Amino acid sequence: MTGRRKDGAESVTRARMAAMLGQGSTDAIGAGQVPPRDTQGPGRTGGGRVTPMRLSVDLAPVAYQRLAQWVLDTGADLGQKVTHVAVFRALLDELLDDEVLQARVRHRFGQR
Questions:
Q1: Is there a smaller number of Cβ atoms within 10 Å at the N or the C end of the chain?
Q2: Alpha carbon separation from 112 to 17, 75, 100 (Å, rounded)
Q3: CA distances from 42 to 13, 48, 97 (A)
Q4: Closest CA to 88 of 44, 53, 112
């Protein structure tokens, strides 16, 4: 089942998510588990979901300031506007396509 939140983003129940992923039960998306990677996402050919999923990220003020400065500097270097969203999307694409980067990110979780 899907519904709309007050901010207009779509919410998806675990049962609906399992159905969307073609899985028979919600056990496949239990606590601590991640659904399979969507290989038909934005920029890829084929069918699949067309409504974007909303994801919110809370950043520490210092991290936000560093990100904002990087975005401004990069936009100036490239001579075009760069947005926070574009940076996160590019980072996600890089992460999903680069096994070395995936290992580096996983390593960070072990350091905390």
A1: C
A2: 30, 32, 20
A3: 22, 9, 14
A4: 53
**Domains identified in the chain, total number:** 2
What's the pLDDT tens digit per position in 59-110?
A: 999 999 999 999 999 999 999 999 999 999 999 999 999 999 999 999 998 8
CA distance linking residue 6 with residue 4, whole number of Å: 7
DSSP 4: E
Tell me the residue range of the domain where 96 lies: 56-112
- Only one residue has tokens 């979901």, namely 49
Query: How would you classify residue 78: left for phi > 0, otherwise alpha for psi between -120 and 50, otherwise beta?
Result: alpha
**Are residue 61 and residue 111 in the same domain, yes or no?**
yes
First to last CA, the chain: 36
Q: What DSSP element (H or E) covers 69?
A: helix 61-78
Flag whether 104 is in a domain: yes
Q: What does the pLDDT look like over 4-51, one tens digit per residue?
A: 555 554 444 555 554 555 544 434 434 444 445 554 555 555 567 789
